[in-house]
Design goal:
Blueprint: E1 6-10, H1 15-27, E2 32-39, H2 49-55, E3 60-65, H3 67-81, H4 96-110, E4 115-117, H5 126-137, E5 143-144, H6 155-164, E6 178-181, E7 186-189, H7 202-205, E8 220-227, E9 230-234, E10 237-238, H8 241-254, E11 259-265, E12 271-277, H9 279-295, H10 298-316, H11 323-335, E13 341-348, E14 351-358, H12 366-369, H13 382-390, H14 392-403
Parallel strand pairs: 1-2, 1-4, 2-3, 4-5
Antiparallel strand pairs: 6-7, 7-12, 8-9, 8-13, 9-10, 11-12, 13-14
Helix pairs in contact: 1-6, 3-11, 4-5, 8-9, 10-11
Length: about 400
């Protein structure tokens, strides 16, 4: 790549991007590196980032506060869709990448940069998510992905490089897990987790909560309020989206909920094993699912559940900025018009158990569903004719077989 004088780098301050700044300056002679850190709720990881970026060779650091937009434009649309990748993963890294890449691209255009760089590996999903988002806003912008070209072959090589270049790191060789943290979740990969037969060392790696064994011996109840599918209150207190998630992270974390050990199918073809912490998100998904059971008719709910798998695949595969994802979100928004109410949950040692729900739009009619006297609301004799017609194709087939 010729004539690269200014590079905008997606910067987290982790191992990969800490090493990339000096590597870029070594391999693109005379280039300026502008670092961009996206604040998507990762908290203390942003502390001291500017000093570190400048020390390792960046000309400046942008720190972009994206938490509110992240919640309202990415997390909540995915929550409303009920999207879970392979029925388990709540997509914490997946939907963070589009918003980060979008803002980095905007800054690259503002800075008149010659290229955008990222620290994603050539084996991962994130390289796809970043680069598809860049294509959506700057289709001709060159992308530099050092992991696909440099001489470093492992995270251990990166640590060696960092030590040789006096780059400060927050990890050691023994704690060298690959992690991604934001407001919604924290992921852990690498080291002993690369062998699926190993039980995760939860006491060692958990940061957002405790193990179920260490959780309190008494259950804790939490009430989540929704308006049109969006969580708006916790225990009767109205909150914005960021506060809802932070509050539920704290409540869920201390009760050991939202821990997932999963082997998933990456977009690039391989299987990978990771441990995810999503305490608040797990509570929200359970509460939202319960409220939909109350408020959505059968056909809408079943169609929505089928499309949730498609929505999850789009998000996981980096296709956020596409007409199909936008169309599915439009469908989801229509389904959520009646999803208003409150859900009570009992949290106990890693479990999330329903403890009641109510909605002004409930389709549940106790007078019809009751096992007691229904006062004529439902004539049970009608079911005989219904079964006769509903089962007619089965009866016809059986009669044909008997004639043979």
């Amino acid at each position: 790549m010729k004539d690269v004088r200014k590079i905008v780098l997606a910067y987290s301050g982790g191992l990969d991007t800490s090493v990339i700044i000096p590597w870029l300056k070594e391999n693109y002679e005379g280039c300026e590196v502008v670092a961009v850190a996206a604040d998507v709720g990762q908290g203390s990881e942003l502390e001291g980032l500017e000093k570190k970026a400048l020390k390792t060779g960046a000309s400046k650091l942008y720190v972009e506060d994206l938490a509110k937009e992240f919640v309202e434009e990415y997390i909540f649309p995915t929550l409303k869709a009920g999207a879970k990748y392979e029925n388990e993963y709540l997509l914490g890294t997946s939907f963070a990448r589009p918003i980060i890449a979008k803002r980095i691209t905007e800054i690259a255009l503002l800075e008149n940069a010659d290229a955008i760089a990222h620290g994603c590996t050539g084996k991962g999903n994130d390289q796809v998510r970043f680069e598809l988002a860049i294509k959506a806003f700057a289709p001709h912008m060159p992308v530099i992905a050092p992991w696909r070209t440099w001489e470093l072959k492992s995270r251990e090589d990166e640590i060696d490089y960092a030590e040789a270049h006096d780059i400060p790191l927050r990890i050691s060789r023994e704690t060298n897990y690959s992690k991604d943290k934001n407001l919604w979740h924290l992921s852990h990969e690498g080291l002993d987790l690369e062998s699926p037969e190993n039980e995760p060392q939860y006491e060692k790696i958990l940061e957002m909560g405790v193990t179920p064994e260490s959780a309190p011996d008494v259950p804790e109840y939490v009430v989540v309020g929704f308006e049109k599918g969006i969580p708006v209150s916790v225990n009767g207190k109205g909150m914005d989206g960021v506060s809802v998630i932070r509050t539920l992270n704290e409540i869920g974390g201390r009760n050991g909920v939202g821990i997932l050990d999963m082997v998933e199918n990456r977009l690039v073809g391989m299987k990978s094993r990771g441990v995810y912490e999503t305490p608040g998100g797990s509570i929200l998904y359970k509460a939202h699912d319960m409220l939909e059971q109350l408020c959505l008719d059968k056909n809408t709910l079943h169609m929505k559940q089928r499309l949730a798998l498609e929505f999850a695949d789009l998000v996981y595969n980096g296709l956020w900025f596409t007409p199909l994802r936008e169309a599915l979100s439009a469908f989801v928004d229509k389904t959520q018009e009646a999803v208003t109410g409150t859900v009570k949950l009992k949290l106990y040692k890693g479990n999330i158990v329903g403890a009641g729900m109510e909605s002004p739009n409930s389709l549940y009619d106790e007078g019809i569903a009751t096992f007691g006297e229904d006062e004529g609301a439902y004539d049970q004799k009608d079911s005989a004719g219904f079964i006769a017609l509903y089962g007619l194709p089965i009866a016809v087939q059986a009669m044909k077989k008997l004639k043979k």
